[in-house]
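Field reference: sequence -> structure
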Amino acid sequence: MPAVTAEAHKDGDYFVDYEEKVFEDVKAEPGEKALVAFHTVAFEGSIGLVNILNAIRLGRKGYETSILLYGPGVTLGIQRGFPTLGDEAFPGHQNFAANLKKFMAEGGKVYACRFALQALYGHGEPALLPGIRPIAPQDVLDCILLHKKANAVVIDTWTL
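Structure field:
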């Protein structure tokens, strides 16, 4: 059996060149929009958090950015906590709420489908984080179409 002679990794080490940027840093032109729409379940994978972080980044690049939560995506926009709402029961428990609040504080808009909220997940509008705008299920498609008509950047992901 060959001997392992490499030193053990330690804090501060890195494995990749994190400083090299291959593509130019794109910024929005005045009036450009972006929509990040997702159909994913809170805590079932990383895409919910990744999409929120991408929306924050798009806003900081100058895009008028909106998030559309539909289907199970509405579960990212509800208030949660334990033992009381807002409490962090485990590290990262409030990641969605904290980052959606940051996104909205920086000027982003968040929409949540009322059908998914009530019919699929048994929540009412008061369960949403303050600042999230509930919309009719028919608005989900129109939100996407309006952004497409505006030639917006549209990121739309589904997880099942």
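Note: Helices lie at 47-60, 95-105, 114-120, 137-149.
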